[in-house]
Specification:
Elements lengths: L9 H11 L8 H4 L1 H8 L28 H14 L20
Length: 103
């Protein structure tokens, strides 16, 4: 049975931010990112517009079923923002796998 927890501590947040924001560490992160490489190598050329109107300073949450392209969409959007000159430290991504318990 999966473990359900309440709340997170500062070290868990720091770990998640460090793990999920590779552009803070490496300006060439997109070249080696597995999700982006696989997407670019596929025969599909689907580019959803869900994050086209993203603005600096906003807080966005993208959720949905597994394996539908959320991570690829967010990573493409991050790269587009970086290409526009946005400071990498202004872009934070944290993935959260939430399991809901039906009562």
């Amino acid at each position: 049975m999966p473990e359900y927890r309440r709340g997170v501590n500062k070290s868990q947040v720091a770990e998640a931010v460090g793990r999920d924001t590779p552009w803070w560490r490496d300006p060439n992160w997109a070249v080696i990112d597995r999700d982006l490489r696989e997407s670019d190598a596929s025969q599909l050329s689907y580019y959803p517009s869900a994050l086209d109107d993203i603005r600096i300073g906003g807080l966005y949450m993208l959720y949905g079923p597994r394996r539908v392209g959320k991570s690829v969409l967010v990573k493409r959007t991050v790269q587009a923002l970086l290409d526009q000159g946005v400071n990498p430290r202004q872009i934070i991504r944290v993935t959260v796998d939430v399991r809901f318990r039906c009562i």
